[in-house]
Design goal:
This protein is an alpha+beta fold and about 300 residues long. The strands form two sheets. It has a four-stranded mixed sheet with strand order 5-4-3-6. A two-stranded antiparallel ribbon has the order 1-2. Helix 5 runs antiparallel to helix 6, helix 6 crosses helix 10 and helix 7 crosses helix 10. About 30% of the residues are buried.
Length: about 300
Amino acid sequence: MSRPNSAIHLPEQKMAIDTNINPLDQFLIAPPAVDVHGIQRFLLEFLWFGLKEARACLFAGLIFLAIFTVPRNGIWGIPRYDVLLLIAITIQSLMMMLKLENWAELRAICLFHIFGFILEVFKTSATIGSWHYPDAGWSKVFGVPLFSGFMYAAVGSYIIQCWRLQNLKIYFHPPLILTVILSGALYVNFFTHHFIGDYRWYLAAIALGLYIRTTVEFTPYDRPRRMPILLAFTLIGFFIWLAENISTFFGIWQYPNQIGAWATVHVGKWGAWSLLVMLSFTITLFLKATRNRVHIV
């Protein structure tokens, strides 16, 4: 496949390292030069890819570690949801202090937090009742603990970190206005399908048509690799679905079929999460640091 003529930085060019980021990220982005081939090359890239993914998941990983370790009855008389909120705020503050995130990224993450919290309030309302948060908490607003927005922010944080750590570049991206409209329709459908038809699969078909040619280029170590962006959305959605199963097992929230005895989250949620990842990805395209890396057809 020939390279599209665009304004993005070509893979052959050595990527400039932002000296404002922390030393760990600088090391991951610009590792030592090596000359290995075959299985050694595969293992090296696989290892470095795992390290970058672990770093990109730092915020999400710490949030879910807190979910797994904070007792259900809370700590020192503080309800569990409030402890989790304090932990989430502390993690976010430390990431800013240590330059693991910058202010532009934080603003984008706040959008994920807001959009997610609004969706939570609607879905947990008495009229809808898609799921609920069973425990008491001082920081619950309209029945939703404030920390829940951080779980959506964690998804946004992961995508934003991948842009930098994996040196992402997007080829044959559909016109931005179309993806914005599609993302808006996907978000609205999460609300409206309770009152009118559920059009998510029609929207998914549109997404398939828009993104069928789109590829994402990432750099595990020092050589760029490519994959279809739809596969990336699907894989991320799968791991979020796994995390949701673990979270409901620990009783952070419950679906109606999990009251009394835990049950696996319906596999259809995997598709819903993949669509939400697509929406989240579109939001990150408005960050200045990502604009020059997208070739729009």
